[in-house]
Amino acid sequence: MTETVNIELNYGFNGTFQCEIPSERLIHYHQAPAGIDDVAARMKQVLNSPLELPPLDLAVVPGDKITIAVDYQAPAAAEVINSVWDYFSDCGIEAGDVTILQTSSESSMLQEKLKAAVNSELQEQASWVIHAPDSKEEVGYLGTSAGGERIYLSRHLLEADFILPIEKVGFDPLIGYAGGGSSIYPGFSSQEAIIKSRGQSHRELTPAESRPLRQLIDEIGWMLGLQYSLQVIPAGGQSVSEIVFGSLEATFRKAKQLLDEYWKLEPEYKSEMIVIAVEDGPTGHQWNQLGSVLETARNLVAQDGRIVLLTQIDSALGEGLQILSRCHEPLDAIKPLRDSQPGDLLAATQMALTGDWALICLLSKVSSDEVEDLFVIPLEDEAEVQRLLQTDETVSVIASAQYAYGQLKQG
């Protein structure tokens, strides 16, 4: 009898897909790391033993104006903030001296949800600020970079006595690794800086290789005098696999190591089919999640192979995907996307590039006509996915793929 591997994938908001794949056909099966059961206990532990810096209570004193810069993509953000506040409160910090600074996002519900989930003292007395990048009153001049670029940041950062970034660490097609200050810039800068930072990824580079925007982010962290940092590594869905706290440089270095350990895939061979599950995350479940997912799929699937995406996406197409939907061929979208720089530039670009490389099949809640306009085959239900697997093709499987990065094993 042929040995089989039991596959179980969570996808979307509440979907679960199960199947069996013969082991001889399975090239790679990547599962999400386990989540931390007690985030508060882990937070207490890391806050009391920062990496390469003295205890936090030596860095803040009563009366300090403290800005907590929150990356809205960080899982368990409310639990992390509550633990930070418990520590600050024990140090004699007043809630009225705390500013919770967030970037604007597509959904105001994200900010409201975070505020509703934190300590009531913070809800009522802290300042809750949504950064307005197009407001001249909101941003101030930090300095000029080594490359001659004038840097502007939120005044809530410039005028703070102490800044604590809370960031999700993840793979990023533009800067290699997100985290280590990347939530500060360009997110809390000017609208001009935010638009200028958009790009179509560096496919030829691995995450560890140097990129100009990443170098600028590191320089801005130094210019701002960032010292302490909280870096959150995701587990599956909206849970946390690890939290690292201490100096910005040390935490980012450690967090990148953990991210590689948990989420970097390096199979030896490409597969003829790749099955990818995408879950609801801290920012919701939408098309933008597919940017890095499709890049990984393109890296790991053979040309003209099949990419099967398991999602429950039901959101409208963004500007970039609409551009793609009006094209005759996938690659026809690349230049207009580069010219218009839409908010969903990465997702639309990766959809075009991947659609030209392989056959994309999508399980979602979006209408079949809209899906087909993206050069994608719509799947109606899990039974269609099961039928696709009834072949002799080699298969790779990725759980919680929105957090993963994949490339063939080097050497």
TrEMBL record:
- Top-rank lineage group of the source organism: Bacteria
Look up the coiled coil feature and give its residue ranges. none
Under InterPro entries, the record lists:
LarA-like (IPR048068), LarA-like_C (IPR043166), LarA-like_N (IPR018657)
What region holds the LarA-like N-terminal domain? 15-197
Protein name, per record: LarA-like N-terminal domain-containing protein
Per the UniProt record, the source organism is Gimesia maris
